[in-house]
């Protein structure tokens, strides 16, 4: 068992810690110490969410662990990147992002056309394509990054507004960051990744070995 490792699982936009419970249950056999921060990703700003994420991790005293591992779904991957860039924990070793819109979301752009949408659902401002022209790349020696991508356009917004090469909410190219050492594909659509055994096994494999 990896008793010297802290695993942090981070949910995405309009989700909560409960959406990380399936991943947590699947990872428990390999990693006994897992936290699932509950972040205000519906109405609070991206910056506020990252601040609360930082506070939650800090309360766990990550410096007492030999290794820090991370996995984030959707916007959760962006928040992890920002945390790593700001805090630069030198024991951060592996990070998996699943369905993360590294280059922004076309659907966020469309949603922000609605009057007041950016004021009500503030995280949308961090998800728009113009806000994601550059990848937030943590400068941490030895950090291994993996990406999980789906091309199962299983959600109606994706069928209306995105290409077939998407997971229903995020285009495949946006979910594939240039700094990923390894990329794996899952058959689950964007939302179902959170409750999908194949996706959970891919996360466990990368965190355990550094590859898919």
Q: What average pLDDT do the residues reach?
A: 96
- Strands of the widest sheet, in order across it, are 2-1-3-4-5-6
What does the main sheet amount to?
6 strands, parallel
Helix content: 25-40%
Compressed to H and E, one letter per element, the order equals: EHEHEHEHHHEHEH
User: How many distinct beta strands?
Assistant: 6
Q: How far is the N terminus from the C terminus?
A: 20 Å
The helix-and-strand class reads alpha/beta
CA radius of gyration is 16 Å
Tell me the β content: 15-25%
Shape: globular
- Uncertain residue ranges: none
Q: What count of helical segments does DSSP give?
A: 8
Give structural notes.
- 32% of the residues lie in helices and 16% in strands.
- It is of the alpha/beta class and 212 residues long.
- Strands 2-1-3-4-5-6 form a six-stranded parallel beta sheet, sandwiched between helices.
- Helix 1 crosses helix 8 (197-209) and helix 2 (46-59) crosses helix 3 (75-87).
- The longest helix has 14 residues, at 46-59.
- It is globular.
- The mean pLDDT is 96.
